[in-house]
Design brief:
Elements (H helix, E strand, L loop, with lengths): L1 H25 L12 E3 L15 E3 L4 H10 L3 E5 L3 E6 L5 E10 L8 E5 L8 E9 L14 E4 L2 E2 L5 E6 L4 E9 L4 E10 L5 E12 L13 E6 L2 E4 L2 H7 L1 E7 L2 E5 L3 E6 L5 E9 L6 E8 L3 E3 L4 E12 L2 H11 L14 H18 L2 H15 L1 H16 L1 H10 L4 H15 L8 H19 L42 H16 L6 H18 L4 H24 L6
Parallel strand pairs: 3-9
Antiparallel strand pairs: 1-2, 3-4, 4-5, 5-6, 7-13, 8-10, 10-11, 11-12, 12-22, 13-20, 13-21, 14-15, 14-17, 16-19, 17-18, 18-22, 19-20
Length: 572
């Protein structure tokens, strides 16, 4: 009865490990909202204090592509054409509100649609960036979302062709906005105000990024998606639901940046590194529709003397969170901690170096999967001296198994005496029963750091390996429950137990058989059950991580086999 009770306890504990890990690390995927979201045509976003907003006009939301096509036909858009971006600038409001990522597609199929990053107000899931001035004198007219700008230079915006827009307020102020873009994802927006009146005027520059509706997120506990920023060198993150409760969160800062991030994409405002700004995270719900906004406004108003000109420059990053690119921008433009837009996690000190090592090997060998296998060999080599001592201790423990069995049989009813005799045996033979845990413990930070690299870096997205693995960042698409595709049935996600998870489970079981059994029978039964638990648990993890684990187990098995053979220990 005791053995049966212990077995039930072992199974219960294993299930608890599986469920707990899935809950706290894998996280429940949040359901995408089912009902269509209303959007507002030509509606002014909630803007910083002192910026007037026109009355809202409600319209039926449209497909972004359809809406942009109609606006192009009406002559109110200027094309954006760069190696990395396709889109347009809206002359109504002067917004950057139409962007697609030329090198990124919705699926691994290169013919699938490009990723849509920004969409205009009036479209489903509107998402845009806006820039302007807030005059201290409310009687002075300033540009709004309904202002119609005039393009003064060029019929398109490209890396070698900046776009200049102008607007005259009819009160003696001439507003000019020059948009420039590089070959990647960085815009530079330079705003100027010329004062032709006989009186000085004071204005404060502002910039904002607004997102209509609650976006679909991956819903993982260990991944931040939503508003974030770096202020005075410190990272601030706000989940959508947290911001909805708070309403407005303000942060004074000098330099830094603020934006809204998805798993792989970022839209961020970057002020002058020396400029004092008031940064805000804002939630509002005009017409009962969710709206999330990040904005910046200069802390001090700029005075424009009669006949004078005021100028302000802000950058906008809108694109893929490529690690090397963010680091390059951070260094070249003085953007503090710009790489923190990528959620590297608690093991940042390992995750980022691991990424650079994998990226180097992938560039060298042309495949991230091969890079992962080679990187595992390097890691095993780095830990070899420490692991070697542990495996020698484990070999000694394996050799002592017959003696340990005799002690358990002799003192089976006297647990205290049995433990005393065991400890005396360990001391006499100079072995530690905990030595076998060390190789596992030293792998934990490596495992989680690699998990982060595979899970959050855009470079791993749609990176192929060989055979049926076309995306190392996605789970193995095969499953034993339809005989790996032979049966025309798509099992639910919980039954997606693919080939690589099974290989990993088999390698874990084989490695476990080579290790000495724990002296505690309950602990031994739990360990026997763990390969099954981990096989199911890792089936939903990125395939690259499962391949790493299986390959790491294989190398460990080979290492242990050699050590045990030299120590004269029977492997069976």
């Amino acid at each position: 009865m005791t053995d049966q009770r212990n077995l039930i306890l072992a199974i219960a504990l294993s299930i608890a490990i599986l469920v707990g890990f899935q809950y706290f690390y894998e996280g429940p995927k949040m359901h995408q909202r089912q009902q269509a979201q209303q959007a507002q045509q030509a509606q002014q976003a909630e803007v910083p204090v002192n910026v007037p907003a026109p009355a809202a006009q409600i319209d039926t939301p449209k497909d972004a592509a359809q809406l942009v096509a109609e606006q192009f036909q009406a002559g109110s858009r200027i094309k954006i054409d760069t190696p990395a971006l396709h889109g347009s600038v809206n002359l109504v409001g002067g917004r950057i509100d139409d962007l697609k990522l030329a090198d990124y597609h919705e699926t691994v199929d290169p013919k699938s649609p490009e990723i849509v990053l920004l969409a205009p107000s009036g479209a489903n899931n509107a998402y845009y960036a806006e820039f302007g001035w807030a005059p201290e004198n409310r009687d002075l007219a300033a540009p709004t979302s309904s202002t119609v700008w005039t393009a003064q230079s060029g019929q398109s915006l490209s890396p070698d062709k900046p776009l200049t827009l102008t607007w005259d307020n009819g009160q003696g102020l001439l507003f000019e906005r020059t948009l420039a873009v590089d070959k990647d994802f960085m815009f530079t927006v330079t705003q100027r105000v010329k004062n032709t009146t006989s009186q000085p005027v004071k204005l404060r520059p502002y910039s904002l990024v607004t997102r209509h509706g609650l976006p679909h997120t991956a819903g993982y506990y260990i991944l931040h998606e939503g508003p974030l920023g770096v202020f005075d060198g410190k990272l601030n993150e706000h989940k959508y639901d947290e911001l909805k409760k708070a309403g407005t969160v303000s942060k004074p800062t000098t330099g830094g940046w603020i934006g809204i991030t998805d798993k792989y994409w970022l839209v961020s405002l970057i002020p002058d590194p020396k400029a004092a700004q008031n940064a805000r995270f804002v939630y509002s719900a005009p017409n009962s529709q969710d709206r999330y906004q990040v904005d910046l406004m200069g802390q001090d108003a700029i005075e424009v003397a009669p006949g004078g000109v005021a100028e302000d420059s802000t950058r906008l990053f809108a694109g893929a969170k490529q690690v090397r690119l963010l680091d390059a921008y951070s260094k070249q433009l003085g953007i503090t901690n710009f790489d923190l837009a990528i959620d590297f996690g608690w093991f940042y000190f390992l995750t980022k170096p691991f990424f650079y090592a994998l990226d180097f090997l992938a560039r060298l060998f042309g495949n991230f999967g091969i890079a992962l296998l080679l990187f595992t060999v390097v890691v095993k080599g780095a830990f070899f001296p420490l692991a070697n001592k542990s495996y020698l201790a484990m070999a000694k423990m394996k050799k002592l198994q017959p003696e340990m069995t005799k002690i358990r049989e002799r003192f089976g009813e006297d647990k205290v005496r049995q433990q005393q005799e065991m400890m005396a045996l360990y001391k006499r033979e100079k072995v530690s029963p905990m030595a076998g845990c060390l190789p596992i413990l030293i792998q934990i930070p490596v495992f989680f750091a690699l998990y982060k690299v595979l899970f959050v870096t855009i470079e791993m997205r749609h990176a192929p390996f060989f055979g049926w693995i076309h995306d190392l960042s996605a789970p193995d698409p095969t499953t034993i429950f339809n005989l790996f595709g032979l049966i025309p049935w798509n099992p639910p996600a919980m039954l997606m137990l693919g080939i690589w998870p099974l290989i990993m489970g088999a390698s874990m079981w084989l490695q476990q058989k080579m290790n000495p059994a724990p002296p505690d029978p309950v602990q031994a039964k739990i360990f026997q059950f763990l390969p099954i638990v981990f096989t199911f648990m890792l089936s939903s993890f990125p395939a690259g991580l499962v391949i790493y684990w299986a390959w790491n187990n294989t190398l460990t098995i080979a290492q242990q086999w050699l050590i045990m053979r030299r120590a004269g220990v029977s492997i069976t």
